[in-house]
Amino acid sequence: MKVDTNKLKQIIQEELCVNVDIQTRQEEYVKAKIIYCKVLRNCGWTLTRIGATISRDHATITHYLKRFDYNFSELQSEDFIIKYKKVNNSFNRYLNKNYLSVMTRSELEQTIEKLLKDEKYI
Question: In the chain, what are the domain boundaries?
Fold first, then answer.
């Protein structure tokens, strides 16, 4: 799967109002970078490859991913979880923007029938 890191950076900029390319230790920027790294890791990227896109080494990316697990497991980090889900959902929608074009006719018909049955508007 081809992943456009610039699009992910743009989504983070739009959703979190943070530029992950800025070199700073401010918490909001670090958390945005943690989310950025987790999304790319979910896409199968290596630590070194992720780090190269934001001028960090693989050890920093490992640290970010450990912090992600910690922040995600803490009940007090509900805001962090919401931010991650917003970015991840937006990026997944971007990656799957052409999912209708790869569906067969019968799959499209089934999808439409299901939407109509569930009283969803198309």
Answer: 5-117
The DSSP H or E segment spanning 53 is helix 47-53
Cβ atoms of 71 and 80 within 8 Å: the answer is yes
Residues 70, 1: Cα–Cα separation, whole Å:
28
Phi-psi region of 101 (alpha: psi -120 to 50; beta: other; left: phi over 0): alpha
Q: Which two tokens stand for residue 92?
A: 């997944």
Q: Give φ, ψ of 83 to 5 degrees.
A: -65, -45
**What does the pLDDT look like over 37-81, one tens digit per residue?**
999 999 999 999 999 999 999 999 999 999 998 877 765 578 888
Give the list of residues 6+ apart from residue 86 with CB closer than 8 angstroms, or none: 15, 16
Structurally, at CATH architecture level, domain 5-117 sits in Orthogonal Bundle (1.10)
